[in-house]
């Protein structure tokens, strides 16, 4: 069983997609495999209770890979779609683009404070696709 989730983004953010994933799972034991079909965003399991965690994560990523129009990023060649282009690819290289998650009786076996997030690295709105495949166990 496979599905494609579509997530509309509007700049850098962590979009909680846990409920969307959960809603598509069959009432069975197995594994959910998620894969983002883009090279400038990521998937992440992260804390879902305190929004400061996600804000700090985005700030940390911006410190690691600032916009290409800053002096420290003068070495960047790939700027085809603007100064956020290559930094978005660098951030996506640091975070996962796929996740494998256990499922029991149709429920994701996430921890108490965990959620599944699509992490948008680009400045402008995008329509992102995440493939969800369920493998019965």
């Amino acid at each position: 069983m496979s599905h494609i989730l579509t997530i509309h983004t509007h700049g850098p953010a962590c979009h909680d997609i846990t409920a969307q994933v959960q809603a598509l799972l069959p009432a069975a034991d197995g594994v959910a495999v998620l894969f983002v079909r883009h090279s400038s965003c990521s998937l992440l399991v992260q804390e879902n209770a305190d929004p400061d965690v996600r804000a700090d994560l985005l700030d940390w990523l911006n410190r690691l890979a600032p916009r290409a129009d800053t002096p420290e990023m003068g070495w960047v060649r790939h700027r085809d779609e603007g100064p956020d282009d290559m930094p978005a690819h660098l951030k996506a290289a640091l975070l996962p683009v796929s996740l494998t998650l256990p499922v029991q009786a149709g429920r994701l076996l996430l921890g108490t404070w965990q959620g599944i997030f699509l992490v948008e690295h680009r400045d402008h709105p995008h329509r992102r696709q995440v493939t969800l495949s369920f493998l019965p166990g």
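The mean pLDDT is 97. The first helix runs from residue 18 to 23.
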